[in-house]
Amino acid sequence: MTGYYSSPFSRRHSVGVDVGGVLVGGGAPVVVQSMTNTDTADIDQTVAQVAALARAGSEIVRITVDRDESAAAVPRIRERLDRLGIDVPLVGDFHYIGHQLLADHPGCAEALAKYRINPGNVGFKEKKDRQFGEIVEMAIRYGKPVRIGVNWGSLDQALLTRLMDENQERGSPLTAVQVMHEAIVQSALLSAEMAEQIGLPRDRIILSAKVSGVQDLVAVYTELARRSDHSLHLGLTEAGMGSKGIVASSAAIGILLQQGIGDTIRISLTPEPGGDRTREVQVAQELLQTMGFRQFVPIVAACPGCGRTTSTVFQELAQNIQEDIRRNMPVWREKYPGVEELKVAVMGCIVNGPGESKHADIGISLPGTGETPTAPVFIDGRKAATLRGPAIADEFQKMVADYIERRFGGGGRAAAE
Ligand code: SF4
Questions:
Q1: Does 280 appear as a known binding residue?
Q2: pTM of the predicted model, to two decimals?
Q3: Which atom of ligand 1 sits closest to the CA of residue 349?
């Protein structure tokens, strides 16, 4: 890349966990994961959605396993995905009867790459520890990792009550919110300790502690990261719809990632009716990429536009290039290794246009209102052409395609070697 960009801080050390061939933590790149919203018992719909999520870039996909029909469907979903050449690991999300479903459906226990347990709703009273233990024993028997996923909406009430009572005895009691944070952290850590005592090694335990407030999430994970070296799954629960969900998740997860905390992320967006479930994968990738952790697709930098340009040419061009890239990426990933590092700039006028374009690998500065109707194109920091006339957009798109072929295609690599 031609420009100057800062790198993120170093990551927190965590014990790596192998989830069906995908390493989470232990210094591996932050993993993107997602969850289906189909009825798992509906094999066709679930296979289609898992395939779409995997093709969009989800490296792990979680599915709900809530009843016998869902558990029975899991091995058939796995087989169908394998036949499609989609090897994305599947995680089973269990609540209340997970121990029973895993015992009754060995094919399900085998086909899943990880079991997710919520210690707050694994069972009640004396059944709780026994049923939690039974799932952990299944994980040991089948050689699978687990995620111990605490959620404040289903927090272990007995633990919270005990901590509230203890807090009353303190000379300077914590606030109710602080006690709740401590209960969430303890629930995760005590459950992990119990799983390890049963015999599940630490390199098969991932922790998460989801809440729905940005500041709460930052506080809880900062403490969890300070008190353990477990691999951590980050996610803001009930983040919401549209821009609210994206902003809240990005703010919370971004702050933690910046501190080096987090080994895998999921952006929990509520899709609009009929909306595309893969949006959560795209947002997760964009968050990691804009923060400098990973590269997934070429970046298109575009100015926001202002009163200096009344034309919509640059907006359309930026959008066309962005869509072109997303559409072509599945093929380009194979054909042009390294293409995800490409940076394209599409700028609206001469004020910042040439400067920003020079920082990109290839950039164009379109004419603003009243400017000479010419568009300089910069390649690798140097002016390479000046486009004129009505076909500027088409010509620039062709120049981008030629640049990709030259730099990332077989010929370009051979010439460079
Ligand atoms: S590059 Fe020009 S058109 Fe774009 S925001 Fe800046 S001043 Fe406005």
A1: no
A2: 0.89
A3: 2
